[in-house]
Amino acid sequence: MPADIGRRVMRCLPRIGCVFADDRQWWWIVPSGSHIDVAWPPFTSYAVGAYVTGRSAARAVRSRQPRLVHHPQDDSPYTPPIPLYFMTCHIAGIRPRWSPGDATGPTRAR
Q1: What span, in angstroms and rounded, lies between the C-alpha atoms of 65 and 95?
Q2: For residues 97 and 90, what is the distance between their CA atoms, to the nearest angstrom?
Q3: Kind of pairing, strands 107-108 and 94-95?
Q4: How far is Cα 25 from Cα 82, in angstroms, rounded to an integer?
Q5: Of 11, 2, 36, which Cα lies nearest the Cα of 87?
Q6: What's the 3-state SS for the chain?
Q7: Neighbouring C-alpha atoms within 13 Å toward the C-beta of 46
Q8: Cβ–Cβ under 8 Å, residues 103 and 33
Q9: Dist CA 58 CA 41 (whole Å)
Q10: What's the pLDDT score for residue 37?
Q11: What is the pLDDT of residue 49?
């Protein structure tokens, strides 16, 4: 998600797992399957099987390199996906909605 939204989310969640960031994007580590039957708000993207690698051969600019900005105090690297989903929907101004077999996603809150 964009960095400005990532900062807002970070301030509001009661429990946070590992979070990585660069100068434009923030990445939240959530349990596998957190995308099933849920359509995340449009400013987010869900990367199945994503991982952070070392420096590329292209010599990326230092500020664009992801860095760990939060490490949890317990043993789990995961942010609970449901509170994260509700918070991102709230920030986007959309009503959370999901159901098995229906990934049409959230609707605009009225």
Answers
A1: 33
A2: 12
A3: antiparallel
A4: 20
A5: 11
A6: CEHHHHHHHHHHCCCCCCEEECCCEEEECCCCCCCCCECCCCCCCCCCCCCCCCCCCCCCCHHHCCEEEECCCCCCCCCCHHHHHHHHHHHHCEECCEECCECCCCEECC
A7: 18
A8: no
A9: 31
A10: 86
A11: 75
pLDDT in tens, the chain (110 residues): 999 999 999 999 989 999 999 999 999 999 988 888 888 888 888 877 766 555 444 444 555 788 999 998 888 899 999 999 999 999 989 988 877 655 455 555 54
AA letter at 78:
Y
Whole-number Å distance between alpha carbons of 52 and 28: 12
Q: Give the tokens for residue 98.
A: 């999901």
- Number of residues assigned to the chain: 110
Tokens of 74: 């317990």
